[in-house]
């Protein structure tokens, strides 16, 4: 085997620089000094006999070859991590570190209910959480930055294994004394598109809601400015419009202190599937199935 091969540390430096676009921030994320990271990248370029990064005072620009190397580096680093995970998984399951991404429309409502059970059943598990929208969460999963993600389906997340934990239904939320308040459920045809408030682009809940309503004109007319479900609730409570909320948010008493009225959405696909997903062929596959079972039971018993 050739001794002139890139080291995993050099590849980590390169990937960090691509992610942060700044030498100082990249070095900080790798827990090294900026000079150490710069020296490691120069060694990598010398080893490969090519320029991967164009350095200027203001910007860090990757060469076309540099971008290709970064993609391969992601794959190699992920496989190296999976090698370590394989050895870890051969011991006691669900112990040690586990990194999970959770989307913002799930994290504040689901985690407070599930984490106590997880700590009780798996006290040796060190769970590190990061909150990010679905696209970023899937990228983090495939780049090896997290081990699994908790998000909502349907959503195109590439080649993953997954388990559905439960179905989360949608409800229409509107100000009290609204003239269109029916006694039971609300048909999508009754939703006034000029008053509909939705989360801004990037949140998959917005796409799930629009798909459930099955009214193409809603996408063009709705106001998509909410940065969180809590923001939308405040806007509705102040008479600025109506919105749709998932059942888990209502169960977490997001409407406490408001005069908002809710009714179930009457549609064929008026829900989303809360799902745990991980990389296909992960050596920790059995552990993730165990984790999904714990999370599912935690939700069912807390409902």
UniProtKB/TrEMBL annotation:
Coiled coil: none annotated. SUPFAM superfamilies: Periplasmic binding protein-like II, Winged helix' DNA-binding domain. GO terms for molecular function: DNA binding; DNA-binding transcription factor activity. GO terms for cellular component: protein-DNA complex. InterPro entries: LysR_HTH_N (IPR000847), LysR_subst-bd (IPR005119), WH-like_DNA-bd_sf (IPR036388), WH_DNA-bd_sf (IPR036390). It holds the Pfam family LysR_substrate. Residues 6-63 form the HTH lysR-type domain. Keywords: DNA-binding, Transcription, Transcription regulation. Belongs to the LysR transcriptional regulatory family. This is Hydrogen peroxide-inducible genes activator. It comes from Alterisphingorhabdus coralli. The lineage of its organism: Bacteria, Pseudomonadati, Pseudomonadota, Alphaproteobacteria, Sphingomonadales.
């Amino acid at each position: 085997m050739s001794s002139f091969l890139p080291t995993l540390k050099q590849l980590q430096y390169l990937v960090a620089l691509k992610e942060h676009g700044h030498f100082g921030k990249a070095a900080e994320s790798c827990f090294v000094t900026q000079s150490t990271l710069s020296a490691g990248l120069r060694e990598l370029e010398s080893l490969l006999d090519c320029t991967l990064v164009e350095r200027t005072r203001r910007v860090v620009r990757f060469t076309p070859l540099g971008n290709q190397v970064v993609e391969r580096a992601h794959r190699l680093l992920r496989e190296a991590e999976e090698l370590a995970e394989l050895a870890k998984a051969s011991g006691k399951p669900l112990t040690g570190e586990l990194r999970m991404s959770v989307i913002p429309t799930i994290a504040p409502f689901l985690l407070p209910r599930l984490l106590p059970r997880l700590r009780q059943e798996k006290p040796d598990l060190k769970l590190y959480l990061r909150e990010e929208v679905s696209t970023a969460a899937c990228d983090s999963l495939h780049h090896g930055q997290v081990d699994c993600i908790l998000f909502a389906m349907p959503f195109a997340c590439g080649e993953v294994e997954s388990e559905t934990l439960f179905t989360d239904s949608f409800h229409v939320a509107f100000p009290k004394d609204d003239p269109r308040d029916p006694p039971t459920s609300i048909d999508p045809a009754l939703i006034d598109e000029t008053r509909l408030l939705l989360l801004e682009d990037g949140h998959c809940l917005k796409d799930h809601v629009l798909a459930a309503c099955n009214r193409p004109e809603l996408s063009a007319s709705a106001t998509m400015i909410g940065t969180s479900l809590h923001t939308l609730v405040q806007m509705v409570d102040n008479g600025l419009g109506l919105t749709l909320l998932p059942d888990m948010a209502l169960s977490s008493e997001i409407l406490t202190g408001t005069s908002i009225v809710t009714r179930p959405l009457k549609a064929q696909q008026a829900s989303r599937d809360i799902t745990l997903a991980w990389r296909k062929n992960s050596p920790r596959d059995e552990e993730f199935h165990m984790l999904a079972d714990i999370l599912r039971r935690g939700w069912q018993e807390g409902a």
